[in-house]
Each structure stands twice: as structure tokens, then as C-alpha cells.
Amino acid sequence: MNMIEALNSAMDVALTRDPAVTIFGQDVGYFGGVFRATDGLQRKHGLTRVFDAPISEGGIVAVAVGMGAYGKRPVVEIQFADYIYPATDQLISEAARMRYRTGGEWWSPITVRSPYGGGIYGGQTHSQSPEGIFTHVAGLKTVIPSNPYDAKGLLIAAIEDDDPVLFFEPKRLYNGPFDGHHDKPVEPWSKHPASEVPEGHYVVPLGKANIVRAGNAVTVLAYGTMVHVALAAAQETGIDAEVIDLRTLMPLDLETITRSVSRTGRCVVVHEATRTCGFGAELAALVQEHCFFDLEAPIERVTGWDTPYPHAFEWEYFPGPKRVGEALRRTVEA
Amino acid sequence: MNMIEALNSAMDVALTRDPAVTIFGQDVGYFGGVFRATDGLQRKHGLTRVFDAPISEGGIVAVAVGMGAYGKRPVVEIQFADYIYPATDQLISEAARMRYRTGGEWWSPITVRSPYGGGIYGGQTHSQSPEGIFTHVAGLKTVIPSNPYDAKGLLIAAIEDDDPVLFFEPKRLYNGPFDGHHDKPVEPWSKHPASEVPEGHYVVPLGKANIVRAGNAVTVLAYGTMVHVALAAAQETGIDAEVIDLRTLMPLDLETITRSVSRTGRCVVVHEATRTCGFGAELAALVQEHCFFDLEAPIERVTGWDTPYPHAFEWEYFPGPKRVGEALRRTVEA
Amino acid sequence: MLKNSSRLHIPEPGCRPGETPDMSHITVPPAGEVRRPAEDVDPAEIRDLAWALIRVLDDGGNPVGDWNPGLSADALEKGLRAMMLTRAYDARMVRVQRQGKTSFYMKSTGEEAVAVAAALALEYGDMCFPTYRQQGLLVARDWPLVDMMNQVYSNSRDRLKGRQMPVFYSSREAGFFSISGNLGTQYSQAVGWAMASAADSDSRIAAAWIGEGATAEGDFHHALTFASVYQAPVVLNIVNNQWAISSFSGIAGGERTTFASRGLGYGIPSLRVDGNDFLAVYAVTRWAANRARSGLGPTVIELFTYRAEGHSTSDDPSKYRPGTEAAVWPLGDPIERLKAHMIGAGLWSEDQHAALERELEEVVRAAGKESESYGTLKEGARIPASTMFDDVYKEMPPHLVEQRKQAGL
Amino acid sequence: MLKNSSRLHIPEPGCRPGETPDMSHITVPPAGEVRRPAEDVDPAEIRDLAWALIRVLDDGGNPVGDWNPGLSADALEKGLRAMMLTRAYDARMVRVQRQGKTSFYMKSTGEEAVAVAAALALEYGDMCFPTYRQQGLLVARDWPLVDMMNQVYSNSRDRLKGRQMPVFYSSREAGFFSISGNLGTQYSQAVGWAMASAADSDSRIAAAWIGEGATAEGDFHHALTFASVYQAPVVLNIVNNQWAISSFSGIAGGERTTFASRGLGYGIPSLRVDGNDFLAVYAVTRWAANRARSGLGPTVIELFTYRAEGHSTSDDPSKYRPGTEAAVWPLGDPIERLKAHMIGAGLWSEDQHAALERELEEVVRAAGKESESYGTLKEGARIPASTMFDDVYKEMPPHLVEQRKQAGL
Ligand SMILES: Cc1ncc(C[n+]2csc(CCOP(=O)(O)OP(=O)(O)O)c2C)c(N)n1
Ligand SMILES: Cc1ncc(C[n+]2csc(CCOP(=O)(O)OP(=O)(O)O)c2C)c(N)n1
Ligand SMILES: [Mg+2]
Ligand SMILES: [Mg+2]
Fold it and tell me: Within a 13 Å sphere around the CA of B243, how many CA atoms are in the beta-carbon half?
């Protein structure tokens, strides 16, 4: 399966197993979503399980919160992560704090799926990576898969989770394991082992990172598209990097991270979001807090620049394998 | 002047000097604001310069953006920072990117004032410190004063600035330089030198930090209320801390920070916001990036916990002088 | 070029402190005048009701017209009692706040019918999404005062574990949804709850309340949009008490039309009702609830009332409106009006009323004593501070375990 | 317990791919039927117009009724030309997108009157806050096609410096506000602009457009609320082209009432107009603009039209609606209808039309050639990449200077 098929399969499994699962969002019903992630689900599971929603992200999340309070398990799609902001208040003030403010009497078992990240000439409003805004919010979980197998297992885990989960899907990975070489033809998922996705139910647990490449020279912390970029950079520089795919940003698998950095003594953090106050800042802060006396070089961050995502210059903006490779080199040589 | 008077004076000066300045927000007109920051301004400057707005933070900021495009210089109040979220989309997608997306053809010379921070038994919805969400957004500036003199000078600078500025006012400081000792009587501003505030126009430039206490043992990075808490902690522990009041979070005065930390070799970051992905993460990441080889101890963060702000336990939540003092001790002893 | 003769219009209330209060712009149509349409009426046929004012009790306390719900003596007494108990409860809680036993309080004085009559017109299982000013729902549903007080005191028995500001109650059992500090958010959540109920063909409906001031939030629009699109079984109440802290209703759009009329643009039947007329509020709520329950979707109800006291204990209304404004407010007091009706109908007497007043004061005093024995905000027992790390997530993630340790709790 | 006979209602369009298209639910009232109220009419007196359909051109192309704006031959030709030029421009840009010369494009085919007639009814200084589908405003205001194309190509002459997706134009000079990717945000901004204009007693007014789908965003409600409260001089257009990508208008609330009626709940005069009738759109816009300019505040206008093609070049409408739906759409094509009117009035001929078509194609081709000489998205000249660090702030802060260095730019 490619990533879209894997996500589709996850929702199909969830709809089949749990009658409380309800999916809605803009264009997700008859049409099956602008990226086709919900293709066929309305036909199979019925109009009231999978349906179109008005263009009102704030309303969509509010309605999900209300349905969650009733006992449903809503899975909503925000068409692009760039359009999640009208829902900020319902996410931060409501979903995130419902369990806390009611002493556990109510909660928000909702999943908010959203395609995110750049690389499709989407300009400033179809390319953003807003995860760092939401990882700051106590009560929210944030998950970002990097391949079809994880995507399905993590999405099922997110749907089954009783806390609100933001599930950001790197849209540049929908059709293949894009490694940042935008000028080369895209390899399809079918050639990648993680495209072997079981048809049925399984979960990839939230909060567990994955070491996708073992190494000794430096630890690279990445998620989503950047996992593939980091692997490419390691390969191309020949640096023996340990590449960790975080998979879940909150809760974070800090143990896997610190175990690795304590051993390698060096760390590079990679993400596509703007740098300042991005999730990489938290990673750098944590790593130096926990591994200070093992660190042999400053922790570098390779990220999107602190500008909006420019339409014509997205490849100058995107932190590709060249930039990651240079950071690896600087870090191992420091 | 106390802080409220200083803010009021700043707006009075701005209204008087520039006919484009327009102030609106909930209850800011006839009544003068729930914290009385705009008291008397409508009477003095007229109904169309200072007026009440509907309870619609998204509408308030949108209207400010539109007025800014026309040529006005709007200063809006969000009654509590906790209520800024309905305006997130207009701030992030619109105000922040207007200059960029139009190639400089339009911009948003707006100032968003908002009381923020805890310590008044406000519970989870009248105590938040959301600055870390907005410092992640390219195109926004964020300013947080710690005393009346700075408050006036920074607010005038913010209003005169042609970029959108978030101006968070530590509401616990409105009436006095609160140092975290909530059980002691509050000292009024009148006893503090920074309460000597000129009547007329002056600016405290954005982007310049202030070393409020010189020291050699450790650098403390703080802003808002935490400046006073840090000073108390230094005094009470007897540790020779250099306390830097950042004043402007974005753009950040990195030079003052790195100069200090390179000298002290130790750094403690303090803020009231939740820890994960808070502004302290960025500070820690930057300091280790720039001062790695001078650092003798891990950079510690003393912050609000990663929970909502609880009504009855706000003093267990608040990072007071005891917690800051302990961090100072650990850091100088590491 | 054409001259723009427009000026920026800034709405202003009729009078300010020091001026003679004036509510002569409010026209009060006679009771009984407005027709009661069949519950399955086509919304397009009753648009005029959004600009009417449904009233049952006339000036003499007699119930008149189609909307008279014909309540039993028992039901009337239950309503009267719940309104009076709410008022007595409010009075005590403001007193204890003034004594420093808690941080904050908000009364519903003068608006008790809005919540109490609705609670009695709804079924117990119907789910309420209130604002902070509908404590009358809990009282009318016989929820223990002691439990409410425990919340106000953030004491050792506070089910919300000291986390919420006073009056931000939550009771799943009583169908009273958690109060949010963020205005308006509950309104669209209610629609989601109702959609879920409809999807399950559940007999329960939802009801939501919002202040006229907060109708300006986007959530209000989201609620009406989703309710209309999916025909959610929900009663959408707008409590127009004419003030939002210091801003009169004109700042929310009240100068040009009624708040009920907001519903028309979504094709939702919209009624405007005398919010201080217990019988009218009951009847209208029942009409809307029946519609919802029988699959006819949402109804918008504007409850026209008046915030007789300050916004909260943090507020001083004499700073922005004449202190005597309440005296000229033409729709009176909901308790007085129901009392007059019951006396007129021979179901009640001044003596009974005085006795009930004394009884309820005692009920409140006893509840207060009990609750205070579990602690108040700054004194006595409280929940262990370590609990502040609970319930952020269902299971505590490692970083919070670590932070709890750092906090020494 | 009562049984809830409600089911969750999920709106569905009349027909789907493979089915016979059917628009028989659309009733088309005869042209000329709707009265034209005085411009200073009390909004409460014209509520019915929110459910009417203002039409001037009858089936024979004759202008009838009060709303006939009586335009000069020159004005008609200007309108026809701008609509035809817009269509020719759209056609070319889709072609170049298909050739890979840019990333994306959006046509306004079938909706040209919405933008063009409004542009001609407004004064040039009036400020427009459009969506991505009102390129006709720029064309009608004689903005150079080359400049528009430069933006679409993100080439070396793109004034937006390659930052925006194609069609997200901005022209301060032409009073065309920057297009946002985020739907709806411009609507409430327009109200702010209009408020500022009113505060200065400036003669210029604002006009805003929103798709019927995007009316569900909170910004729509904010816009109407603020416009009503402060009586902002703004024309609030709702372009109901019946589709929002794959969702029919029922998903936005269109099953139960008109979009124009949304305005009534704010006390704003609200008109519904045949959006494919150039004369009607012109007349209604003029009416609203005159009201605004003379201090009578906002107007809501629903323009009933049909999105004749796909949502964008990324869309395939055959996946969700019958390909032949356009053929049964009863309000026809705005260019054809204006052409028929002009021929009928003896002002135009088939020959002139064909000649103009050829001329405009040439105009577009020439502009295209010029623009392409300044580069296309992936080939030829472009702005230096280092500019991507400019304009984030007025002055570049140190961290961006540093990042630009790190980028090697
Ligand atoms: C989103 C948001 N903005 C602002 C506030 C501050 N605030 C609290 S109550 C209030 C007035 C509400 O007025 P209304 O909706 O009329 O309700 P009422 O108090 O009259 O019952 C305001 C502005 C808030 N709580 N939430
Ligand atoms: C806030 C936001 N949500 C979602 C989208 C994705 N989106 C782009 S266009 C569109 C449909 C808009 O439909 P409508 O408002 O009717 O305008 P039309 O395309 O018909 O002109 C959607 C959902 C967006 N751009 N912004
Ligand atoms: Mg009110
Ligand atoms: Mg549309």
C-alpha cells in the first residue's frame, strides 16, 4: 500500500470495528477527500458514518468535541494543516483541557487528521508544518508518520486513543518515500519494505520512536518526510548516523533519544517547520538537559527558514539532504 | 505611575500624536477596560478613536488588519490572553504574512495588547502565557514588559512599529513588582525606580534586552513577572546571577544573551508558560548552539508545569523564587 | 468624487451613570398576542415570530393565549421553588466571596426563569450546554447544592479537583456540560452532541445557552450552520440580558434587529420570548424540544431578560450604567411574576411564600456549613496538590511523572 | 421515554455522476418582477428580497423592470469586453498550466458577470476584497494582463516575488486586496477597511466577495456582525456558484434558505440576484454602493450563479457531479446573455462579437508571450532566491540575516 491506501485502510478498519467511529471533513464524503484518503468509505459505511462538512474548521472540531462527549469517536480531516488555525480555540481551550477541567468526567477522544508539509508547490497556505504550536499545548498528542506501515498502525492507535490526537500526514510522502531530491523521479512506495501493510487491525503504539538506521557517529532526530531526507544525507555523506524516527512528538520517547545521544555524543535535529520555537527547539533543549556531559558538539537544527513557505523557492526553503548532510559533517567534525 | 497608568499614558500619547491610532476591544470604550488600561481615553479622544468591540476576537483582529490596510494604526485589546485563540487564524495567516505575501504592498501595523500570566486565581482561562505559540510564527513580533517605564516605552514603540506586534502584559505586575512571594503583601510600584515614567513621548526600542542585575555566576534569562522572581531568587540564594530581562522575544537580542552566557558559562531560563515547546526551549536551543564550548552546566528551564493552570493550586504551579533559586544552585554547582 | 456621508457609527446605550434611566425604546406587546404554531410548522411560515415577543403572563398575573402551557400546581411550585433556591444560593455565594472564602462568583439574579423553566420543560436525560449563568439548571434538576459549593470553594470534595474557577461546574450525571471560560465554545459542541444523538436515533436532545454578547463569536455561527445543515435535535437559546460586562447589547448588534432573527438566515425556526415569564419560557422550550425530538431539527430561542446585578463579583456596574436602571426594566422579576400568578390562581399565598423563603435560606445555610467543613479556597481541607498532574492525559506520560517529581508532590 | 424520530440528516445533491442532471428544484422567477426599493429604504421593509431573485434580462434578452440600470452602449461594450477577456485569459492560463509552465490555476468561467459588473458599478477607488475567483475585477479595471501572468508564473517580474500560488494576486493600485489562501479571512478585513474609511469620512467604500461554501467560516459572521454594529460602508457579496470543490451548496446550509437571508439576522438589507445577468448584478451593486456611500451602511448580496468548470486545475468534477449538469443550469451564460441583449438592442452583431473574440485572443497571446519572456515557474528568469528572506518584517532582524547567510543566498 502507499500511504494514502494505508490511511484509508486504517479508517476502514476503525469504522468496521467500532460503531462509534465517525468521519467527517470537507470533501471527505462522496468524493473521498481531495487527497482521496477517505475514498470509498462513505459508500461502504454509510452516509452518517462518513460525510462532508461545511467549510468551518472551528465548527468541525467543535462538533467533534460534542460528539466525543456523547460517546462517539470522531475522526475529522482538516483539508490542509494550514487551515487548522480557525480550529485553534476548540483544540486548545476545549479538546485539550476537557478531561482536566472536568476532573475526568468528560474527555475528547478525537483524532484530527491533516495533510501537512511542503514540496507540492503549495505556497504559503498549502505547505505549513504547524506541529510546534500544538506540541506546546498540554493535553494534546501529536503524531507524524513517515511510511505506510506506521501510518496505518499509528492512525488506528490515534483513533483508539481516548485523548485528542493531531495526526499530521506528510503529504509529500503520500505517493512515495521522498528524500528531498525533488529533481529526481519519485520512487513509489511499492519498492519500500514499509509498503507491506497488513489488511487488518494492528497498532503502532503512540509514544514509541523507531531507530530506522543504527549508527555511532551522530544521532539524527527526525519525523515525517525528514526521516527519508536524513537517511539520504547519511548515505550520501557516508557518515555513520543513527537516525531516529520520532513518530510521536507528544508524548515523546525521550528514553530512546537520550540513550542514543549519550552514546554518539552528537545530535542533529531536523524538521521542515520554521526554526524559531519549532519542535526542534524542544528537542535541543531536552537533549542538552539530559545528555549535557556526553555532548561533544552543539546540537544543530536543520529546519525550514523563519519565513513563510514561498511558492517559487520551495526547494531553497526545504531542508533537503544537502543541508542536512552539511550539518552532519559540521557536527561530527566539531 | 503603576503599570496600568503607564500603559494608559502610552496609548494617550499615541492617540495624541498620530490620528491614525485607533483603539478598540471588549469594554475598552466608556468603561475603560476590565483592568482600566484605557480609562478616560474615549472621553478624551472621542468615540471613533476608542470604542467597544463585539465579543469576537477573530473579528477584532480581522478588522484591525483591514484598518491597517487602509492606513490606520489599530491597537486592540484581547481581554485575556487566554481568549486570543479565536484570533489565531487572522494573526498567523493574515497579519503575520501580509507584508510577505504582497511583496511589501500591504502590511499590518497592528498592536495586540493582552493581559497574560497567572497569579490572580484565574484558573485555566485567565492565567495563560501563550507567547510561545506566536514566537513560532514568522512575521509576528512579541513584546513583554516587566515594569512601568518599559511598558510605556515598549508600547509606544510597538504602536509605531509597522509590523504586527503582540504585546503581552503580565497582569500580576499591573499593581506592583510581584516577585512570586504571594503570601507577602504586595509592594506598590511607587517604591520602584521604574515607576518614574515621563508624561510625554519616549520609546524603549524593540529587540533590545536589559541586564537588570549584573553578575558572574550564572545568566538568568527571564521576561515579565519572572524578572522579579529571578531577582528575588538571586538575592535570596546569594548567587551572583546576571539577570537579563528580554523585553522583546521576537526579534530577540541574542547578542546580549550570548555575551553574558559566554562569560558566566551557565544559564537558567525562566518563564511561566508550560515548559514543552515554550519560549524557553528556543532560548536553551540557541544558547547551546552559540555558547556550547563555554557552557559548564546544562541549561535549566524553570517554567510552569505541562498542565493547565489550576485554580486552587496556582502557587504550586507558578515557578516562584524557591524553584528558581534551586535551579540556580543546581546550575552553579553542576 | 462622491462624498461619503458615512461616519463610523459607534453604538451607545440610552443612558449612562448620572443620567435618568430610560427603557422607553423597549416596546412590550401584550401577553397572549402571539400565535402558537403547530410544532411541525414550516419554518418559513413563522419568520415573524423572530421579531415578536411571546408572553403568557399578563400584567395581572393571568396566563393568556395559545402559549399557556397549562402547568399543574405541582409543576408551578417546583419552578417557583427552584428559582427561589437559585436566588438564595447566589446571595449566599456572593456573601462568602466577599468574606474571602473563594475567589469569584457570578449571580443569575433576575434571569432565573431562563434556566429553571427550561430545565423543567426538557427531559432529565436531555443534555445541557450552558454558560456560567445557568446554575438554575442544576438547581432545578435537584443537583446537591453542597456539590456546587464544593466546586465554588475548590475544596477537598470538589469533583473538579480545584482546577476550575468558581461556577465553572460540570455534572455528567445531571446532564450539565462543563462550563468553559471561553465564551461560545459550548454552543457548537452542543450541536455535535445532538448530531451524535440523532445518528443513534437516541431520544435525548441537546440544549445550549449563549449570552447575547457572545453571539458575536464564530462558534455561534458554526453552531447554527451545522445545526441547520444536519438538522440536529438541539434547542439553541440566546440569553439577551442586554449587557455583556460593560457593553450594552448594541455592541453585539442589538440595535438593528432581534437576536432571534439570527436564526432565520439558516432556515431555523426562531422564537423570541419574554425571558422573565416562567410560563412563556417553559412553553417555548417545550415546543422546541418536541420539534427536535420528533426529527424536525433545531430551534433558536431568544430569551429577552435583564442582568439585574453586576456581571460578576469582579464587576462594578455603577461605572457604566445608572444604578436604578433595573427599576425601569419593564419585564419585571421572574420570581415575583410567577408568585403573583400562583397567588392569583389561588395556588399560593404570601405566607407560604415567606415560609418557603425562610426554608430555602435554611437549606442554603445548611449546605454552606457542610461544604465549608470540606474546606474553602484558602482554608481547611483540600485535594492533594499532586493531583494537578492528573487528567492532563488519560495515562500520565513520562514527562509529567518527571515534573510531578520535580514539583516535590 | 419519548422516541427520538430524528435521524442525522446528511444533505445530498440532486444527482451524481452517471445520473441525469436535474435542476428542476431551481425556480427561475421572471425577469423584472422584483421591485427596486428606494436606496434609503428601511431594511426591515425589504426582507422579502432576500428570498427573491432580481433579474433584468428576460429570456429574449430584453431588459425589464425597475432594476434596469439603463446602461450606455459604451458601458455595455466595456462589460462584454471585460467578461470575454477574462474568459480568454482563463482559457490560456489553464493551457499553460497543463503544459507545466506553472503549478496551478483557477478559472471563473460562467461567473464573469459577478466580478466584471461589480467592478463597473463601483468607483475605481473603492477597495475590493475578493476571493481567487474574481480575477474579472482586475480585468475590468484594466489591470495589465502581463502583470497578472507574471504572478501566475512566479517569474522575474512577479511583484509578489514568487511567494504566492498562482491567482493569489494583489494590486494596491487597482484596489484589489491580496488573495489569501485561507477562505473567508478577507470578508471581515473588508469591514475593517470600510470602518476606517467611514471614520475618515472618506468617499471610498469597500466591497468583499466570498464563496457560498466559505460562508460557513467564522469570518463571515464576524464580518456581518461588525458591519452591522458600526454600519460600515461595505458591499458584502456572496457568490453562490453552488459548489465548494466537491460539496454542493446544501453542505453550506443551502437546502433550507437562501444565502442572502443570512444578512437579515444582522438587520442588513439583503438582496438576491441572478449572478449571470450582467445588468442585474450591475444594478444591485450600484444600489448597495450608493447606500454605503451615503452613510446607510452595509448590504448583503447573494449572486446566484454556477461554477461551470472544475474547482481548479487540481480538480476533476466528473468525480462528483454529472458532466452535463452545466447544460441544464437555467440561468445560462453571462457573456451569451449580455451579447444577446446587445444584439437585440441593435448595439452589437455576431460579426463584431467574433472579431472581438479574435482580438482578445490575440491580446492574451501577446501578453502571454511577453510574460513568458520574463520567465515561467520552472524555466527562464526569476527573482533572486535571496529575496525570500525579505518582507517577513519591514527591517530584517538579525536571525534572518543569519539564516540568509546559512542558506548561502
Ligand atoms: C472568548 C472570550 N472572550 C472574552 C471573554 C471575557 N468575558 C467574560 S464574560 C464576558 C461578557 C459576556 O456577555 P454575554 O455573552 O452577554 O453573557 P452574560 O454575562 O450577559 O450572561 C466577557 C467579554 C471570555 N470569557 N471569552
Ligand atoms: C480555511 C480554509 N479551509 C479550507 C480550504 C480549502 N478550500 C479551498 S477552496 C475550497 C472550496 C471553496 O468553495 P466556495 O467558498 O464555494 O468558493 P468557490 O470555489 O466555489 O468559488 C476549499 C474547501 C481553504 N482554502 N481555506
Ligand atoms: Mg449578556
Ligand atoms: Mg462555491
Answer: 24
